[in-house]
Structure formats: structure tokens, C-alpha cells
UniProtKB/TrEMBL annotation:
InterPro entries reported in the protein's UniProt record: NIR_SIR_4Fe-4S (IPR051329), NiRdtase/SiRdtase_haem-b_fer (IPR005117), Nit/Sulf_reduc_fer-like_dom_sf (IPR036136), NO2/SO3_Rdtase_4Fe4S_dom (IPR006067), NO2/SO3_Rdtase_4Fe4S_sf (IPR045854)
Keywords of the record: 4Fe-4S, Heme, Iron, Iron-sulfur, Metal-binding, Oxidoreductase
Record-linked SUPFAM superfamilies: Nitrite and sulphite reductase 4Fe-4S domain-like, Nitrite/Sulfite reductase N-terminal domain-like
Domain (Nitrite/sulphite reductase 4Fe-4S) ranges: 120-201
UniProt cross-references to PANTHER family, sorted A to Z: BLR3264 PROTEIN, FERREDOXIN--NITRITE REDUCTASE, CHLOROPLASTIC
Designated name of the protein: Ferredoxin--nitrite reductase
Signal peptide (residue range): none
Species this protein is from: Thermus scotoductus
Residue span(s) of domain Nitrite/Sulfite reductase ferredoxin-like: 50-110
Any one GO molecular-function label of the UniProt entry: oxidoreductase activity
Any Pfam family hit: NIR_SIR_ferr
Length: 201
């Protein structure tokens, strides 16, 4: 188990305090909306006490333990007991009651997953070719570069209040599995003069 980071625990405690103030009528709903979006928590139209939580799979990877935790929280905290896998390597849990959101965040953060910057005007999930590290056609494994980019931008101040969402993808194969041209930055592995690098789109 990765364990809950100090930063994640502080953010969850702050969210719990906001929820308590909101339910007591002491929190500005707009401030709550801004904070929850930064933390991957969407509102559900017509159901103000329920939320959709988007959980990022860092560079599209998840451990067996992470899969188990996602299954457990989906069964325990969602109305339909389902998890939705997105096209950009995330998992969404729909219809989670507000009181249960901090429990879900603690569970997923403890196994190395996060909801930070999963929505809102931020640098979103850093995605990666699903064949990275195993494809014989790739000139090199792009996973370490994608992971370094993910770690750099997670909670980084530069990516918190952008004019719009910003998406980055890494590809190593000749076949573009990551769909790099539709991202704001698409990095495709290339070797020139014996040196590793990327063609950027």
C-alpha cells in the first residue's frame, strides 16, 4: 500500500471541514464548488448532495491493490455499484453521497491514486500509450517520462488556475494509441543521432 500522503490528508481534512460548514449553512457554495472541482469532484444536476468522483490512474497504470480498492469503493459508496472507465485513463464513480466523498478520497489516495486536477481548469491526467514498456516497435519506453511529468505537475501552482483544461499524452509506438494530436501537447518518442527525444504535437 502506498499510504496516504501528508498533502492528501490535509486536503481531505479541509474538504471535510468545508462539507460540515456547507451543511450548517456557513460555507459559500461557490467556494465549495471551486475546491471540489480542483479535487476531481463534480456536482450532479438536480442532486446537490451527490457527486461524481473522477480518479486519475497515473499514466494509465494501476496496481492489483488499486483495482481492489476501486471495486470496494464502487460497491460500498455508489448507488449503482459501478465504476466507469474513461477514454483518458481515469475511473469515474457516480452518485456518491457527499458525506462519503472523504472516505472514497482516503481509500484511493492510500493506494497511490488521486483525484487532484481530474477536472476544472488545470493540467489534467498525464496519459500514456497502453503498450508503453512492452511494445517491440517503440524506440524506448516513454513511461518514465510520463511519470516524471505527472509528478511535476501534480499540485504544482502553475497548473491550478488555467484559462481552460490542459491535456498531455505520451506515445512510444509508431501506431498512435494515445491519440497525441488531439491533446494540447502530444509527445511521441523519437531517436535522432542516437539520442532519445520527442516529436511534439
Amino acid at each position: 500500500m502506498a499510504g496516504l500522503s501528508v498533502e492528501a490528508e490535509a486536503e481531505i481534512q479541509y474538504l471535510e471541514a468545508m462539507i460540515a460548514r456547507l451543511e450548517a449553512g456557513e460555507e459559500d457554495p461557490e467556494d465549495f464548488r471551486v475546491y471540489r472541482l480542483k479535487n476531481g469532484i463534480y456536482g450532479i444536476r438536480g442532486r446537490p448532495e451527490h457527486h461524481m468522483i473522477r480518479i486519475k490512474l497515473p499514466v494509465g497504470r494501476i496496481s492489483l491493490e488499486g483495482l481492489r480498492v476501486l471495486a470496494e469503493v464502487a460497491e460500498r459508496y455508489t448507488e449503482n455499484r459501478l465504476a466507469h472507465v474513461t477514454t483518458r485513463q481515469a475511473v469515474q464513480l457516480h452518485h456518491v453521497h457527499r458525506r462519503d466523498v472523504p472516505k472514497v478520497l482516503r481509500a484511493v489516495n492510500a493506494v497511490g491514486l488521486t483525484t487532484r486536477e481530474a477536472c476544472g481548469h488545470s493540467i489534467r491526467a498525464i496519459t500514456c500509450c497502453p503498450y508503453a514498456g512492452v511494445s517491440p516497435e517503440a524506440p524506448f519506453d516513454v513511461t518514465p517520462y510520463a511519470e516524471a511529468t505527472y509528478r511535476y505537475f501534480l499540485r504544482h501552482p502553475v497548473g491550478q488556475n488555467l484559462p481552460r483544461k490542459f491535456k498531455i499524452a505520451f506515445e512510444g509506438c509508431a501506431t498512435d494509441h494515445a491519440r497525441t494530436p488531439i491533446h494540447d501537447i502530444g509527445a511521441v518518442a523519437a531517436v535522432e543521432g542516437g539520442k532519445r527525444g520527442f516529436r511534439l504535437y
